[in-house]
Amino acid sequence: MTYRVCFVCTGNICRSPMVEAVFRARLAEAGLDGLVEAESAGTGGWHEGEGADPRAAAVLEDNGYANEHTARQFQPSWFDRLDLVVALDSGHLTALRRLASTPKDVAKVRLLRAYARPSPGLQPSASGSPAPSDEAGDDLDVPDPYYGGRDGFEECLEMVETACEGLLAAVREHLEGRAA
Q1: Residues 171-176: contacts with CB within 8 Å, 24+ apart?
Q2: Residue 1's pLDDT band (boundaries 50, 70, 90)?
Q3: How many other CB atoms are there within 10 angstroms of residue 150's CB atom?
Q4: pTM
Q5: Catalytic site residues?
Q6: Burial (0-12, 13-18, 19+ Cβ within 10 Å), 13
Q7: Exposed site from 88, 145, 163, 171, fewest CB < 10 Å?
Q8: Are strands 3-9 and 36-42 parallel, antiparallel or unpaired?
């Protein structure tokens, strides 16, 4: 059974395509790309059908990540097929939890950078998703680089790479628990 993760930012052209590319690379390196699928979306549909922002694409390419991306908007019906919905900031977290129609779906929504924090052990949420604490709020936001220069995209990539290590560990732990 495939484990499905969707990363969500505002327009699905900067942050979420970056984390999707990084997480896919981490999955491949770990030999989990056949067991876990990663995708991304935006809370809004302003950029549907567009590729990643050219600055995001350039930073990904310069750091060895593949980038084949088409922007799309997150749909509430997707909760049924997703195991984990990862928000890039607290605004996305709130918006996604409002779209969730059940407590199980609400529990699937987590903040990306919560996975970057050392944790004494990730506890599964009610949905079975690996669930670190999201309580630090804005301290866990990945800032939107859209209105700045390339340095903002490089900073975003650093945050994403760090968080993906913890997320990969949490997903691996969840998969091992599923198999047991």
Answers
A1: 171/3, 171/5, 171/32, 171/36, 171/84, 171/130, 172/30, 172/32, 173/122, 173/130, 174/3, 174/124, 174/128, 174/129, 174/130, 175/3, 175/32, 175/35, 175/36
A2: confident
A3: 13
A4: 0.90
A5: 9, 15, 144
A6: buried
A7: 145
A8: parallel
